[in-house]
Amino acid sequence: MTTQEIPVTAFSDQRPGTAGLRKKVALMQQPHYLANFVQSIFDCAPELRGNTLIIGGDGRYWNRDAITTCVQMAAANGISRVLIGQGGLLSTPAASNLIRQRGAAGGLVLTASHNPAGPDGDFGIKYNIAGGGQAPEALTERIFETSKALTRYRIDPDVQVDLDRVGTSQQGTLAIEVIDSVDDYAAQMATLFDFERIRAWLRQGHRVRFDALHAVTGPYARRILVEQLGAAESDIVNAEPLEDFGGGHPDPNLIYAADLVAAMNGPDAADLGAASDGDGDRNMILGPGVFVSPGDSLAMLADNLHLCPGYADGVVGIARSMPTCRAADHVARRRGIAIHETPTGWKFFCNLLDAGHITVCGEESFGTGSTHVREKDGLWAVLAWANILAASGRSLPEIATAHWQRCGRHYFQRHDYEGLPAETADGIVEDLRARLPTLVGQTLGGLGVTAADDFAYTDPIDGSRATGQGLRVVMGDAARIVLRKSGTGTDGATLRLYLEHWRQDALDLDPAAALAPLAAVADTLIDLRQRTGRAKPDVVT
Ligand code: G1P
Ligand code: ZN
After folding, report:
1. pLDDT at 443
2. Are 190 and 141 in the same domain?
3. How many Å lie between the centroid of ligand 1 and the Cα of residue 345?
4. 18 and 89 share a domain?
5. Is 365 a catalytic residue?
6. Which residue's alpha carbon is at the smallest distance from atom 4 of ligand 1?
7. CB 3.0-4.6 Å disulfide test: which of 76, 101, 367, 422 passes with 3?
8. Spatial CB neighbours of 177, under 8 Å, sequence gap ≥ 6
9. pTM of this prediction?
10. Measured from the CA of 489, which atom of ligand 1 is nearest?
């Protein structure tokens, strides 16, 4: 074993975004680029020395090479044990769970989530701290500062790891343990949900159709849904993880999971349809002929979660990210529990979860999760829904309709304008920001503006403050228009326009039609199409 100190000219562009560092593969593969970032993490996380580090990724192109580099650097930086998912695979929630269950000091998760993979695609890496959550902003900023000034990194090129064989080896001072990627996660799910009841429900002829989009959740879904719960193998589709995700875009939404949507709208629809993303933290939920928007799914889960054994004591509070529709607020109000509104990004939920202020949380971007880990969790949401359907004896459309009848329906859409020049995107945001003070009191599309601001958040636990988290134009409880710039894109700038319109009178509209008047208001207000030169948004979810 020989530790080498490699001199490096630091990089200036390694500031982590909403969820870690994400770059084009070619950029990541530049000599010393990944090592520069990993060394910066190790320098900023001294607690890793003499301790355990979890390592795994979503299986995308370059995953194995990057993991080997991480392990060689862990050895040279005094880490005493690494736990790696077999084949280099760990879903993001499974990694978070392992950090917690195995008492690790942290974890490296190699993923660019739902972004396409392959030599021309994206690669990413994020650092999760003890407790399983993503590194908080103060730490990612320190890592960024370190990455800009690094002069050397440490690596032991003699360390080798056979990612495919489960087992332990000692190399110098480092113990390397390759573990089954699914075992610990599946064991935890069995403590939260009534597997017996779901099995019985499936035996009665009910069906769950799950699309893994050729990403990391395939092995998890096969083990839990098929082997442990008895779902039909043929209902788990695209379950083989591929380095390029089969050329697809592993984002579980109406656009990229179109096959699933078609199946769920067809004559042979399953009782529950779901998909997850590249690293397994997102979920999309469908019933026969029904799409449950993520904001609605959060609300309906929060309302019914007590039917699952792990949550039998009920939900103590709910959190949603600011742009997420306010359906969950109605559930919270009715149940007399707290609702928290946080900035976009899962890390803002973690303090609330740690402090026991909330039980469930979610984002409009197809993310839902609970106290069980400190990341969002795609399969968790699928199992929660399956448990609720099995235990309630009601169908998904029945649960959705009952919720809308009781709380009204929050029609919601997100319009994304991708790959914009940074100046264009910044200019649009700046313009609207400047006009916000003039909007309050105006009537737009027949709705009075009650508030217009740039969202800022003070964490109730540690008092930390996040500003500039998105512009919102609020029309009371009736509607909201939100505009913010994405923090995860790798190709220019992405603007996201969020539209929410609450209706109590019309519960069965097509969301696009229901939101057309509000979209027209946003058009006059922001004029995204004219200013971006795009006839329509690149993606609508
Ligand atoms: C996007 C989503 C956000 C999510 C993040 C990571 O971030 O909007 O809700 O937490 O991906 O999955 P954005 O690109 O908008 O910054
Ligand atoms: Zn993801």
Report:
1. 96
2. no
3. 6
4. yes
5. no
6. 345
7. 76
8. 81, 82, 83, 84, 167, 168
9. 0.95
10. 14
